[in-house]
Amino acid sequence: MNICIYTSDRASMASLVNINYLIQQRPDHNYSFLTIVRHQPKPDLVTRLKKVYSELRFDDGRYELQRDLEIIDKRIKALVNPVDRKKFQNGYADEVNDEKSVAFLQKIRPNIIIQSDAGILKSNIFSLSNIATINVHHGLSPDIRGIFSTFWCLFYGIKEKVGVTCHLIDEHLDTGAVVTQKALNTNSKTFVDIEVDNYLLARDVLVESIDKLSRKSFKLRTEKDVKSYYFGLVNPFLYYALKKRNFEPLMKISEKTFKLKDKNFLEF
After folding, report:
1. 43 lies in which domain range?
2. Helix, strand or coil for residue 224?
3. CA 7 and chain centroid, separation
4. pTM over 0.85
5. What is the CATH number of the domain that holds 107?
């Protein structure tokens, strides 16, 4: 199976643990990397000192989310067993969906493309896989879409919607047909612990999805009238308030508007 990992030189720890785990668990596939090089400069000393001063000056909870995200990254990083990318075919691009990306994908003709922090893919990219282009979403999509899904599920008291979905990529965000979906079964109480558990679940969801797609035989099943919630960035003061409540919900999901979406599954 020819698998291309479409990623970034700034990929998150969550993506790195998924990809490295996949390659180590399923080494017989033919992997390649298409990396977007974003040339993001590191902050200089003055900027770093201003950040330290600000955190000390404004100790009112506004940096609590940032600190906990850094803790999550450190815990995930300890679990990443890196692979040597020099052993694989590598391509480089300047922007997501650009001509360099298209040229590389047309050259290698992947069976599967894995979106791994490259960005939002357009049809000129996701149409270039001859089996599937997939994304690993930390939430049960299309019910829960967008970013910071774990936080919003805790915020609205729908912990049963915390989990991982591997889905096909289509023209919309987190609405593609589900390949594999697993709810998180955990006794963890804090956002940090729940998120780390969910990131570890994602590794297995990705491997299982690749195994399924390798069979190359599936059909589409559709459910109608699914409540679909799209969430965005987290206000750090909301996070602080939720943490002060020991992650007891702050609102009911019924107070959040939603759109009805079809939910598609791949059956193997």
Report:
1. 2-267
2. strand
3. 12
4. yes
5. 3.40.50.12230
